[in-house]
Amino acid sequence: MDHPAVLHVMSPLGGGVDRHVRDIVAQVGRRHVLWHVGDRAEVLEVEGARRYYPLDPERIAAEPGRLAAWLDAMNIGLVHLHTVVRAPRLRAAWAAQRLGLPLLVTLHDVLFQRPDAFDYDAPAPEGGWVAELEPVLRSAKAVFAPSGYLASLAAATFPGLEVHVVPNGFAPGVSRDAATLQPRAEFLAHRPARVVAVLGAIGTHKGADLLRELPAHLEGSGIGIVVIGYLDQQLHPGWKPPPHLYVHGPYPSERAADLLHAYGAELVLFPNRVPESFSYALSEAWSAGIPVLAGPGGAIGERVARHGGGWLLPAGFGAAEVAVELRRRLEPNAAGEMARVRSQLSLPDASRVPTLRAMAESLDAYYRRYGPPAGVPGPAAPAAIDALLAPSLDSSLFRQELAVLADLCDESGAQSKRARAFEDEARGWIAKLEGDVSTLTQQLTAEVQERQRLAGELTAARAMAQVAERLPPIVKRILARLARNARR
Question: What is the pTM of this model?
Fold first, then answer.
């Protein structure tokens, strides 16, 4: 008999949490329903069936029994919450209580300390927020965290709370064009002697400001930073400035290792300001066999200290300290140490880079432990869900994307000015080129006409020569004598 389904409740903003849930869906063999909950818009996604139900929160509030009936008919056996943000947290708590189901919670980041935790280097717990979350976490059958660092922080924030460490699984991807993948041409035009990579979408909390300061400290070093991904203020590819900071732009996750090798990265830098909870990017770097240089805090510092695979920056580091460490790690005298770490990373280690299978087996064990015996799925009560569908999707689901597009429009304005200047200059060159082509065409036409005239004369001369060849000898002698007399 099939196992009961898992209802995953999450924010609609994507990112690492969405990747984690998709990995669970792909690896854990049971039905999964994903509930993407925003402040004013929600979507239910039935995995495998490619069905999406945009819901109207006001209709749910008016007739919650319809949604409960639909979830019950889907044979939901557990509720797995993947964020502490208020709207999805309330939905998960409601579903677990209404259906009498066990609740599991994964803490993916430090937002359990305060809702604005990403604005701080070392966020301190906010009492009111912690008090709001505590009942939900303590009612959960199990609380998970992807790293020992995050589990310890959660246990300190909620004394006595047991937090189980289940590392995020990782499987290296290979792009179809790996063999022919090349850096962008504008990078090759100013290629630095030594390349250090930064992976992912780099906002302020991940060190974007430090990266903008870093080029000034790398002058004369021959070291260039390549962001395989993008910065909060630059999504488009390009130098900023050459030859010390280049942005490749967004990329598919399966291309990470191939792009690291294509750009010739010798080191991957993690300039994070806010501590990370796990870091897929670190797994990608290590899976590609490339050493890292990272801050000492958070899960990245914890993983590097435990498994090696790189070096740690000093506490309180800034752009100047990062530049000093980069020069130190890439100087010729450090080649032996770099080779030693690369050799270490060439050996597979499931504790250093956890596998998807190990993660799936751990979570499925909890699902089996706390999930009820399987029931027989009903017809999924389509009429019940139909009454709750939204007539249109609320823009709040896409507000973040719209903000990004607005930034791109602002950036494109500056790009347009540069494009117009280039266009004006290009038009001048085009006009000159067209004039040169016209002159050349006239010269070629005259040359062709002259060649045609000479060819005509040559043909006539050959014809005369053939006629002269047939004249009697006495006539040839007379003509020859006349020609000699004409030349005197």
Answer: 0.78
